[in-house]
Amino acid sequence: MERAWLFSLIPLTIGLVFLGFGAHGLRRAKALRRAGITAQGRIVRHDVRRDGEGSTLYFPVVAWTTRDGRACEHASRFGRGRVSGPFGVGAAATVRYDPRDPSRFALQGWDVTSVDLLFAVLGALFTAGTLTVVLVRLLTL
To answer: Could you give the angle at the alpha carbon of 96 between the alpha carbons of 83 and 15, nearest 5°?
Structure first.
C-alpha cells in the first residue's frame, strides 16, 4: 500500500470541501430563520452569468428597505437557467435578511436549502466512505 493511500486523499478532500460548503449554507439558512427579519421588496433586474460550458444563469436582484431605513439591493446567491413568472423584473418579492448584514439574505421561493443539504449529504458520504476504506485497508495489512 506504499503510495496508494495518497489517492484516497482525493475523494476525502472532495468530501470535506462539499461537507464544509453544505454545512456553511445550512448554518446560514438556520441563522436567517432564527434571527432574520422579513421585508417586502421588488425584483429590479437579473444578473446574467455564463458558466464555462456556455450555460446562462439568471440571479434575481432584489431591492428592499430595512427596518432602520437603509436601502438594499443585492443579487441572490442562487442562479437558475430560466426565470419563471413570479420572479420576473418588477415582481414583488419577500426577503428574509440579517439585520446586522443585509447582504446576507434569502429570497423566499427562489433560494432553497436543498442545494446546501445535497452538498452536506454528498460530502458526508464521500468522507465517511473514504475513511472507511482507508481504515479497512490499514487494519487488514
So the answer is: 75
